[in-house]
Amino acid sequence: MTNKVSDARDFDFVVVGGGSAGYAAARTAHEHGAKVAIVDGAEELGGLCILRGCMPSKTLIYTAELLHHAKHAATFGLSVEDPRADMRKVRDRKRTIIEEFASYRREQLEADRFTLFRSRAKFVDAHTLELDTGERVKGRFFMIATGSSVSTPPVPGLDEVPFWTSDDILDLDTLPESIIVLGGGVVACELAQYLRRMGSAVTQIQRSPNILKETSPEAGKAVAKVFRAEGIELFTDTELEEVAHGAEEFTVRFQHQGKTVERKAQRLLNALGRKPATEGLGLETVGVALRKSGHIACNNNQQTSVPHIYAAGDCSGPNEIVHVAILQGETGAAHAFGKAPLTPYKPEHLVSVVFTDPQVASAGLSKKELEAKGVDFIAADYPFDDHGKSILMEARSGYVAVFAERSTKRILGAECVGKDAGELIHSLAVGITLGATARELLQVQWYHPTLSEIWSYPLEDVLEAD
Prior knowledge:
The chain is of the alpha/beta class. The chain has three domains: 10-45 and 110-150 and 275-345, FAD/NAD(P)-binding domain, CATH 3.50.50.60; 158-272, FAD/NAD(P)-binding domain, CATH 3.50.50; 348-464, Enolase-like, domain 1 (2-Layer Sandwich), CATH 3.30.390. The chain has helices spanning 20-31, 48-52, 54-71, 87-109, 166-169, 186-198, 217-229, 283-286, 322-336, 367-373, 388-392, 421-433, 438-441, 456-464, and strands spanning 10-16, 36-39, 114-117, 121-125, 128-131, 136-144, 148-150, 178-182, 201-205, 233-235, 238-245, 250-256, 259-265, 267-270, 274-276, 309-311, 351-354, 359-364, 377-383, 399-405, 411-418. A hairpin with a 4-residue loop joins β11 and β12. The protein starts with 9 loop residues before the first strand and ends with a helix.
């Protein structure tokens, strides 16, 4: 629905993109008394997270986890006969759940507090957008929150074949017998394991030495070990040479350990990354600078090189995570109107989760980041395969690690690879954000037997270290 008000084309705050970052910015600006417009030309309102990202993927990943446990019920002395997925019902349940979220977001965007333009837009000058409809929208401040799109790297033949993207995987009503997954990042790994657990034969090809290179090498290796144990044919440290498509199958040829390797499958998933969705916005017209990665360059207040134009979310990076996008949107909008954000985005408090099994989660600064900064710190870890609750759950893969400033024992970072790591990490995230020391966190009553209790062991090691 578009609110066409003839005299409503001059606004205090204009948001381009109605996803998580854009909506957060619009809501914040409205709360500060601004007259707000939202411009969104997507086929469907809601943004990547709700429609084609976080929510649908985690809905399906949880379904696959239940199927995986059912298939291994005998380990627990249970008898479950021939568990299998009805892909049409799986898809329909996902669609029902996502529609609940999407309809609520549509209601928010179409509310009277905003003027919504269902159109694409480009800058024609520093204070004016031209819409596809020919209308023009003027603003004192702008927030660019256009998200990201699937990237197709220059692999010979890739742009000539009918590959699938994550969008296709998340809406399947039938399962491919076999599939090749190109990539080893978060999306590639989550969907590779999902497909394998649902029943597809999966080959995964990663160019870097480790999967999940955004995390620590130890985390990537721990997940890779489980992937191979579950039957994923995983190749790392490769060089893609060619992708081809015949009548009934895809062929991928690549270099691995000094040899040419070729694999064939019924389907191909391109999960080699995403790129900022900034094309056609006319950013060059108004002098908005981009980083080498293609992301819009911003300062800590989310201001671009043009001070009254802000950017947030996937199009600005550097962390393409929904809660970060929301914090960035709120930060930018509050700054525009001279206000302090309720919760400013602080990279040193970053929380990140990968929903593979084992999950990979982190909070604060990583070991690599601390080393790069020259911080004198203590690192302590403890494995899940020596922890009571994880053993009785048959959740033995992974570990927890804590990084603390040596002189004060203040917790600077934490990593968790294991069962429900995305839930467990928040215990340490709270401590990191509040500046807690190991001694202070050990004053918490860590209940036994719980998974959370595992944090007490590396915390004790930190406290006892010289």
